[in-house]
Amino acid sequence: MKPVRTRFAPSPTGFLHVGGIRTALFAWLVARQAGGQFILRFEDTDKKREVEGAREHLIKSLRDLGLEYDEGPDIGGPYAPYTQSERLESYQRWAQRLIEAGRAYADPYTPEQVQGFREAAQAAKQPFLYRNHRPENPPAWDGSQPLRFKAEPKAYTRTDAVMGELTTGPEVIDDFVLIKSDGYPTYNFAHIVDDAEMEITHVMRGQEFLSSTPNYLNLYEALGLEAPILAHLPHIMNEAGNKKLGKRDGAKDVLDYIRDGYLPEAMINFIASMGWNDGTEQEIFTRDELIAKFSLDHVQRSGARFDERRLEWMNGAYIRELALDDLFDRVTDFWPPEAADYDDDYRKKVLGLIQERLKFFTELPQLTTFFFADLPLNPELIAGNKQLKKFDASELGNWLEQTKASLLDSDFSVGDLTDRLNALLEATGQKPGVLFSLIRIATTQAPASPGLADTMAVLGRDRTLARIDAQLSKL
RNA sequence: GGCCCCUUCGUCUAGUGGUCCAGGACAUUUGGUUCUCAUCCAAAAGAUCGCGGGUUCGACUCCCGCAGGGGUCACCA
Fold first, then answer.
1. pTM value?
2. Could you check: is the Cβ of residue A193 within 7 Å of any atom of nucleic acid strand B?
3. What is the rounded CA–CA span in Å between residue A445 and residue A443?
4. In chain A, what are the domain boundaries?
5. CATH class name, domain A374-473
6. What is the model's pLDDT at position A27?
């Protein structure tokens, strides 16, 4: 049996959003599961649309998400080059065969003429078919005109690895352009040649190619090639669910998610779960589990909406499972500037306290700044607290004084702090909802914070007492 | 407009003729976990399985029609 070889073949026209990365992911999973190869190929046959820096960006996206490829433009491989603009002789060679077999011909019309045909068809509410205008005696192809495929329209019934059995009639088969007048092949031609030469066994691509597939099948036959296994993936829709996710309406670059502190493994898990599941109730899959359990025939046929809240939940779930040291290494670039003055040991203690609250890393500053710097006193925290606003300043001040007195000779271990806090409850006769709220606000000035004793233990005696004093002076 | 594909809780989905008056997860709501936020635990609410016909003893599951949505009809991929 032939080794499984899959490819991801983007055009360097921009960044990768979740839809694009999912296509890459599924292809990667199929290859890894079979112990085969995953290949990156650049389809840069439209020079007008090319975007500067897109290649590097695409490569970085795959790398950062851990979708390593075995052959590609930057690392080479046995079928190099992996960039279509460097493979022009191949396309010429295959095109020549087609011409000799009478299956390709020069398009004698001007673009305006073809556009005229198209508009006429549109006006008549008919689909446009170039072959209705197929020239009887086309000129010899000299490279200055587009080279067109001479199709042999027929019906097809084929099996798609995801969509199942698909049927179309001859009316969808047309004479499409093989090689453009600028000398570059079209996607339609180039991908077929490349996939064949690179011995690709499975083609994963978006559903938008479903309707052109019969044309490709016709070309495979003309070329004497066997078509690879085809898998058309349903679209990922935008949040409103009314169209396929696209860069135009705000689809985010996957690298932006990484920059915001989403974990690659969570991204991968989440993206895989849009349109695929293993038939059980499992939601969280490690990379290795995905590789082991993935199957194209469990891929959904309908489109899925992209729900960022679910991604947040999953990322938080992954963060919680991380060993503290691992998490610490990953958040290096996300600390608030105030943290610069503190050593790793202190930061790690802080991180340990907020780990279960963190959904993505850019939240780190809002969750931790008060551990590193004194926040300005916020009177609203007390005035807006439904438990505390009932009491007047002298009562609150009195409790804070008692707290201070008790804390003075604490060793500030979590255990001792807890004991003293509990004793304070007795001494003041107040409920934790009142006393602890007051102390928590005084010592953090933050709307939310980890447990009181834990927080004070990390803050330490000097800072805790100073903050209580500060609160006292402003009651 | 032609052709193709799709259609289960708000969202992601399980479900391949009976075990489904439909299960899980996210989100939402409520309660508990000595304060807040979060975690965790428990619970609630949430889908007449797009609609209408068949087939069958029996259909979310099979067939037909319709509707809605998406895609495609480029010298873009």
1. 0.94
2. no
3. 6
4. 374-473
5. mainly alpha
6. 97
Summarised one tens digit per residue, pLDDT across range A49-64 is 999 999 999 999 999 9
Annotation marks residue A247 as catalytic = yes
Q: Is the CB of A428 under 7 A from strand B?
A: no
Residue A270 predicted with pLDDT over 80? yes
- What are the C-alpha distances in Å from A428 to residues A14, A119, A204, A385, A456? 64, 86, 68, 19, 20
Give the CA distances from residue A137 to residues A93, A140, A254, in Å, rounded to whole numbers and listed in that order. 23, 9, 50
Average pLDDT in the A338-356 region?
97
Coil/strand/helix, residue A413: coil
pLDDT at site A156:
93
Q: Which of A60, A180, A247, A404 is catalytic?
A: A247
Closest C1' nucleotide to A45's CA = B77
On whether ipTM exceeds 0.90, the answer is yes
Structure tokens at A311: 């991604």
Q: Which nucleotide is nearest to A307 (CA to C1')?
A: B11
How far from A413 is each of A264, A452, A455, A459, CA to CA, in Å? 37, 12, 11, 11
Pairing of strands A156-160, A236-237: unpaired
